[in-house]
Specification:
The chain is mainly β and 121 residues long. A hairpin with a 6-residue loop joins strand 5 and strand 6.
Length: 121
């Protein structure tokens, strides 16, 4: 019902910035969006979430003050602006969507394929 495709991942030096995007298609109206990440050898973890209007946002403590989630509903695209990147931010970043704000942070219904973000020290 909702298809998600991430893009923009890559290699960046520690302290640098990177913006990744998630293009959504299908039934995108009124969906909550989120970003998760999974580092090698670790479980997938919640990173950030945003409401449909963009007024409600939530971040995991590890990225607060450094990452910003936003969305452009006209483009059906969600963004994650990552600043002051650290090597521990290295992970595959996944876009997710759901009709429930709580569910999108815990067990989203829809997932993208992921995009690799690597931060070198």
């Amino acid at each position: 019902q909702v298809q998600l495709v991430e893009s923009g991942g890559g290699l960046v030096q520690a302290g640098g910035s990177l913006s990744i995007s998630c293009a959504a298609s299908g039934r995108t109206a009124s969906t909550y969006m989120a970003w998760f990440r999974q580092a090698a050898g670790k479980e997938r973890e919640f990173v950030a979430a945003v409401s449909y209007s963009g007024n409600l946002k939530d971040y995991t403590y590890a990225v607060k003050g450094r990452f910003t989630i936003s969305r452009d509903n006209a483009k059906n695209t969600v963004y994650l602006q990552m600043n002051s990147l650290k090597p521990e931010d290295t992970a595959v970043y996944y876009c997710a969507a759901d009709l429930s704000y709580n569910q999108v942070k815990l067990r989203p219904t829809y997932w993208g394929q992921g995009t690799q973000v690597t931060v070198s020290s």
